[in-house]
Amino acid sequence: MIATWWAGLSLIMKILWVVTLSASFIFVIQSILTFVGADADSDFDMDVDTSMDGSDLSNIDGGSNLYTFRNFVNFILGFGWSAILLQDSIPYPALLILISALIGVALVAAVMYLFKWLSSMQQSGNIHVQTQAAGCEGKVYLTIPPARSGAGKVQITIAGSVREYDALTESGDTLHTGTPIRVVDALDANTLLVEEVNTYTI
Question: Cβ distance 134 to 184 under 8 Å?
Fold first, then answer.
């Protein structure tokens, strides 16, 4: 019966089923790894970084940065299942694609909000960022654009543990992944103002 059903699908629907089921499998694996203490998120920002060392929700990039592998999977998940389930109800392909894409974007936004909320809840419960972050040092995790033109991410050691935060810099230079930094100020509970730490001596 499954073989007959599969044979009756168009090429586009076969591709959609394969991609959607693959995204669903990856989503399940990511969820399991996340909530047992491993962060399986891969972030893309010109450089590719893969983090498998997070043991708490503060290290979960639930997608506070838009361009992550996790968010890509979430979009495909929402788009694919919507297109599959609504194909018989929406006879116009263009409208079906538009609605499915909107549902995919909505799912990405919902998951981003959920993980950001979970992360802020844990951080606020354990660490007072505004009073403890200034002067802490660490490294750039995702590239930080210059002159507060955009946010990147940093990992710093604060209160004896390594935490991940969004970060801006007033420097006129881009701070690339791996650059040593120092926290100048905490702009809010999740965003830091940082500067590069010179590693050379005169």
Answer: yes
DSSP state of 175: B
Note if the pTM is more than 0.85.
no
Mean pLDDT per 10-residue segment, the chain (202 residues): 80 90 90 62 40 41 59 91 90 91 92 76 60 88 92 86 89 92 89 84 44
Which domains can be identified in the chain, with CATH numbers?
Answer: 2-126 (no CATH), 129-194 (2.40.50.140)
Strand partners of residue 68: 43
What distance in Å separates the CA atoms of residue 76 and residue 70, rounded to the nearest whole number?
Answer: 10
Could you give phi then psi for residue 58, rounded to 5 degrees? -70, -20
Torsion on CA atoms 190, 195, 199, 200, rounded to nearest 10:
180
Query: What gap in Å lies between CA 138 and CA 182, rounded to an integer?
Result: 6
159 three-class SS? coil
User: Residue 202 burial by CB count (10 A; 0-12/13-18/19+): exposed, middle or buried?
Assistant: exposed
DSSP letter string over 56-116? Answer: SGGG--SSSSSSBHHHHHHHHHHHHHHHHHHTTT---HHHHHHHHHHHHHHHHHHHHHHHH
